Amino acid sequence: MSLLELNDVKVHFPVRKGVLFNRTVGHVYAVDGISLNVEAGQTYGLVGESGCGKTTLGRAVLRLVDVTDGEIVLDGTDLAKLPDEEMRRFRRRLQMVFQDPLGSLNPRQNIESILSEGMAAHGIGANQEERRERIKEILTRVGLPANALSRYPHEFSGGQRQRIGIARALVLEPDVIICDEPVSALDVSIQAQVINLLEELQEQLGLTYLVIAHDLAVVRHISDVIGVMYLGSLVEEAPSDALYAAPKHPYTKALMSAVPVPDPEVEDRRERILLRGDLPSPANPPTGCRFHTRCPWKQETRCATERPELVDLGDGHKVACHFAAGIEAGTVKRTGAAAIVPAGKTDTVPAARTSPEASAETAKAETAKAEAVVQDEPVKAESEVSAEAEVRDEPVKPAPGEAEASEKPEASDESEAPGK
Ligand SMILES: Nc1ncnc2c1ncn2[C@@H]1O[C@H](COP(=O)(O)OP(=O)(O)OP(=O)(O)O)[C@@H](O)[C@H]1O
Ligand code: SF4
Ligand SMILES: [Mg+2]
């Protein structure tokens, strides 16, 4: 049994209209049937573009939004069915680290007060003295000085504030930490430090993470298993290395093609799949395969009429595509619906589309351009994708001292440390 199991979880937000009667006129299908398992001591990375339902799923696990249907089983208990009172006790076991470290910390509370609040509420530590000692220990673990206790959130840099966010989760000794875009608000250099810290903490404390991100590079470094989400559902799930070596779902292939390769020779040979149009509205999702309106391999009529299930194609590599095997074998050919351009030439295609008219014009221009580029070009061999995946840049551990230098607040910690 996995530590955390989601079975067919759905979160449908009602769309209401009218002042007096407040009628429900439809639903936003933000999460629409997600099943996944998070193993103890491992990291599950969840990726997908903005609006696909990642945060809603994270919030559903914590029951911060109403779960429409499905099971959320933590260590054998289905949280989706727990009465509110019992859920409150379970909440300590599931903690969240948020995207915006400043926005999630009360500016009027000092760090000791922020961190001890939850501990007191859940009965951790016999008194404030004990809690303070525990907090000091955790602050050291996340790389913050002990004198941080008496300071306020605005006195810290962005990276340090995220360390405080991580410490706030850790002091409650949770079973699972859900990190929602934990580094996307941080500078690139600091991102690697925070990701490395999460990894170190996992090794030291045996933590279990569900890491949510829109950036594949972020989840690759830290995840054991990666799930790719599109419009409320998982379209692919695989062990991290397998997914990067050979993505099988057309949407994952498009996402991966957007990740730059540092080797200029490989970068020149690489092609990029530019999906047309925005994510369709989750209030009115496409019929059949939800990706069919943007899929370069879309086939008549099955793709638009029959919703594919997530199927294990072997070794835990699961894909929700009727034609995944044929696409991999090269027997199912691309049919359009995307611009395929050399990676170095991506800037020739306008990225932003502001209106449906502009979008249609852009789509036409892209079709012409794409046709010119991909005429008779064979589908890329998986081995080639795999070779490229090998050389992709990964976050680098900072040299000792480097992290400190780049993340220190303006005032020196040493000079102010009381009792140090
Ligand atoms: N409380 C709500 N009521 C109605 N719709 C909502 C609510 N919360 C989220 N949504 C909608 O659900 C969809 C999924 O939103 P969500 O925030 O989960 O996406 P996301 O993948 O986290 O996006 P991002 O990467 O931008 O954070 C969006 O269309 C959003 O507008
Ligand atoms: S089922 Fe059809 S539309 Fe969906 S990903 Fe596969 S080929 Fe594309
Ligand atoms: Mg989000």
From TrEMBL:
Region of interest (Disordered), residue spans: 348-420
Gene3D superfamilies: P-loop containing nucleotide triphosphate hydrolases (3.40.50.300)
GO MF terms held by the record: ATP binding; ATP hydrolysis activity
Basic and acidic residues bias locations: 377-396, 405-420
One GO term of the biological process aspect: peptide transport
Residue span, ABC transporter domain: 4-256
SUPFAM superfamilies the UniProt entry points to: P-loop containing nucleoside triphosphate hydrolases (SSF52540)
Alphabetized PROSITE patterns for the sequence: ABC_TRANSPORTER_1, ABC_TRANSPORTER_2
SMART domains: AAA
Keywords of the record: ATP-binding, Nucleotide-binding, Transport
NCBIfam families: oligo_HPY
Family, per entry: Belongs to the ABC transporter superfamily.
PANTHER family with a match to the protein in the record: D,D-DIPEPTIDE TRANSPORT ATP-BINDING PROTEIN DDPF-RELATED (PTHR43776:SF7), TRANSPORT ATP-BINDING PROTEIN (PTHR43776)
Protein name as it appears in the record: ATP-binding cassette domain-containing protein
Source organism of this protein record: Streptomyces cinereoruber
